[in-house]
Amino acid sequence: MPNVPPELSDYIIDFLHNDPASLKACSLVHRSWVPTARLHIFENVNLLTPRMCASFDRLMETSTHLGAYVKEFNVAKLTTTGMSAQDRTAALAMAERVLPRIFTHLAYVRAFSVSCLDVDVAMIISLAPHPSVEELVLEYCQFPAFGDFVDLFHSFPRLRTLSMRGVTWRDTELGARARPEPPRLQSVVLGKDMDTATLTRWMLAESLHRDIESLSVACVTEDNVIAVEPFLEALGPSLRDLEFHWFCSGMYVTLPSSFTIEGCTRLRSLSLHSPVAFDCCALPWVTTLLSHLSSEGIESISLKLRLLGDLNAIDWEAVEKILTDPKFKSLRTLAVQVLLWQGNNDDLAEVKSDIRARLPQLESKGIVRM
């Protein structure tokens, strides 16, 4: 084979970073291509079945050096619907044994995610503290008790980003166990289907809010919003980026009037997400929250709408009146993202054009982005 300069071969392999088959082929071309190919092949590892867990466990035992390449480690749904009850139990028992062993080889993993497990996430708690993990993602998992989640949380001393959705616990007991100093979180994502009240109370009690600069929170009921209020109030001026999802569960469910972002005086970006249902006549909460904005340094505002109903649900005239106030002179972008629900026959291009026409002053400033 003709000599290929290393910088060119690395460029070729980097270009194929998301093509596993081509990366494997590259690793067979020449031994000098192997390190860069491995870098991409093992950078993101997804274990989706018990068989994949067993195979990766064997690989880590025979080639322990490969664990150093893993930067993102994802474990999801380790059972299949076609399994018998006996096979299912055996598969999960195997996963409980091998996952902690696998993790001991991942010295440089930065992001760890667990989702849709049909077994208590308590099996992961047996993992030794792992100082390299900076991001933890948990989705639709169940802990025996809230204290078990807290134990897992404390096993990542350098954790900076925590993302949770659909995480539950059968018992809210925290447990009187001695725990190390908690990590200093900078970014938190709290999705739907959560016991937000228990979680935010604990975070405030542990003073975890002190370093948080970015928060994304999804609320479905008024109780969800009420649970978030004291947490958001405590964050106050330290918060730089806020994303708020309001999935109102019915046309008579409204955002509590006490909910405000007025205390977030140093926001740089604000993102508001909402469905516009077929029977939705108005979404006054959007303009209400915008009117609460007290951060004169706000640079970016996003409105993300899932549209089945009418655009008139948003008071666009009020939106423009609020955002053209001189105190928002730092505003650089108003991004409006529209997702048309199935059943909405509107033309997306026409919807975008309509929104621009409703915001003439902001459009003339060139800050409206669709």
TrEMBL record:
Superkingdom of origin: Eukaryota
SUPFAM superfamilies assigned to the protein according to its UniProt record, in alphabetical order: RNI-like (SSF52047)
Name of the protein in its database record: F-box domain-containing protein
